[in-house]
Amino acid sequence: MKIAFSNLACPEWSMEQVIQNAVEFGYDGVELRLVDGEVIRSDMDSAAQKRIVALAKDNGIEIIGIGASTRFATPDAEERDRNVTELLAYIELAAKMEIPMVRTFGGGVRGTSEMKQGDDIQFVAESLNKVASRGAELGIQVLLETHDEFSSSHLVRAVLQSVPSKAIGALWDTHHPYRMNETVDETYENRVGSGTFI
Questions:
Q1: 27 and 110 inside one domain
Q2: 23, 39, 118, 152 - which has most CB atoms within 10 Å?
């Protein structure tokens, strides 16, 4: 089994420190959520891309994914479209840097007056369907994390059942379902597709 960590856990570290400490502490890989303390940008310039890729390769550390902040469970269609565009840009960035996965959130606020029950699931599924073909073309998998209002594995499963592409999966973060009183067994039983389980 290979072990990786998200550099969200160490916001004060430079990329050099992230990679050096990954080596020192025996990790195999890193998810990029930050670059030198700032949230990773989808429009990162090519020089920065090359620097990070070379740094990781030279030290034998795999960059396993990019952590995007995109969210789709909103009744605002324009906001959803902006997030789709942003997620597509992260997919392109991942392809350029030869990073296999991009993680996204569902977002949203359940039970608000603007959305009927099930609208949030539909909005997230529709949005992920819009990026699926590009992800498949580039060999990048987009993973919906059990997080925020989609901390329940039941909701993530419901989304994935409406997104048939193998380019869309789940990042089964067990922490968020657990804090919502879901057992690890329940989360595990709800996994579908080829999502990553952590």
A1: no
A2: 152
Q: Hey, which residues does 80 pair with through a beta bridge? A: none
Q: What is the pTM of this model?
A: 0.91
Q: Which domain holds residue 76?
A: 68-198
Q: Which of 45, 66, 87 is the last residue of a domain?
A: 66
Q: Which pLDDT does position 116 carry in this prediction?
A: 64
User: Look-up: residue for tokens 């067994």?
Assistant: 185
Pick from 146, 27, 31: which is nearest to 94 by CA? 31
Contact 190, 184 (CB under 8 A): no
Q: Are residues 119 and 74 in the same domain?
A: yes
Domain shared by 18 and 79, yes or no:
no
Cβ atoms of 44 and 90 closer than 8 Å: no
The reported pLDDT for the residue numbered 191 is: 72
Task: For residues 66 and 108, give the distance between their C-alpha atoms in angstroms, rounded to a whole number.
Answer: 21
The total domain count for the chain is: 2
Q: Per-residue DSSP letters for 150-165?
A: G-SHHHHHHHHTT---
